[in-house]
Amino acid sequence: MTIYHSSTPWVSANDRFKARSGDWMSLGVILAVLAHGGLFALFPEMNSLDLGFTPEEAEVVDLPREVELPPPPDKIAPPATPVVSDLPIDDDITVPKNTWDDNPVTELPPPPSGARPSDVPAWIPRDVEPALTNGREVERVLEQRYPPRLREVGIGGTVVLHVFVDADGVPTRSQVIESSGYPPLDAAAIEVVDRMKFSPALSRDKPVGVWARQGVTFKAE
């Protein structure tokens, strides 16, 4: 049996832990200082890792100037009200139809007496225009027929011809309608027409002879 005297104070385990915690804290701080000092002594050149990060420069953006909106347009006047005529209209009035069946090509007015379509340039009805088919060959012939004196001084030009292409695609007649400004070039262009070949014009799917415009260009290199 234990008897406690009133002169001896009673101390609990919690109080004893609190009394010693200060000593343990001081000891921990001393050990931490010694550990860090040892690390700096062993690794004096310890540096942080370079991640190679380069900050981007801020881009300066010029704000567009303020645009002043134009004032709204004036109010548009409404259209005039149509006036209904009092004149009577016959219900039997109709517009005649114009079709190929009602107006066949065979019933068109004939050409002037004694004239042939190939005599003078004139419009001849067709659905498909004639087209030059041997352009490369014509270019080679133009090189051969190019007047030497004009070529040497670098003179060129374009001649526009009226060419009559018959139903077989053969040019039979030609004449100058727009001169190049140099008679030798115009004459050479006329000489080249005989070497041209065309696909014939078509009128209602049938070949027909027509007058066509054909340009001839001489290029001095």
| CA(first)-CA(last) distance | 137 Å
Describe the strand arrangement of the main beta sheet, using strand numbers. 3-2-7
Shape: elongated
Helix content: 25-40%
Q: Could you state the CATH homologous superfamily of the domain at 122-218?
A: TonB
Q: From the helix content, strand content and strand pairing, which structural class follows? A: alpha+beta
The parts where pLDDT drops under 50 for at least 5 residues are 1-8
Helix and strand arrangement:
Blueprint: H1 13-42, E1 131-132, H2 135-145, H3 148-152, E2 157-165, E3 171-178, H4 183-192, E4 198-199, E5 201-203, E6 206-208, E7 210-218
Antiparallel strand pairs: 1-4, 2-3, 2-7, 5-6
Describe what this molecule looks like in 3D.
The chain has 221 residues and is α+β, with helices and mostly antiparallel strands. 25% of the residues lie in helices and 16% in strands. The chain has a domain at 122-218: TonB (TolA/TonB C-terminal domain), CATH 3.30.2420.10. It has four helices and seven strands. The protein has a three-stranded antiparallel β-sheet. A two-stranded antiparallel ribbon has the order 1-4. Helix 2 (135-145) crosses helix 4. The N and C termini lie far apart (137 Å). The model is unreliable at 1-8 (pLDDT under 50).
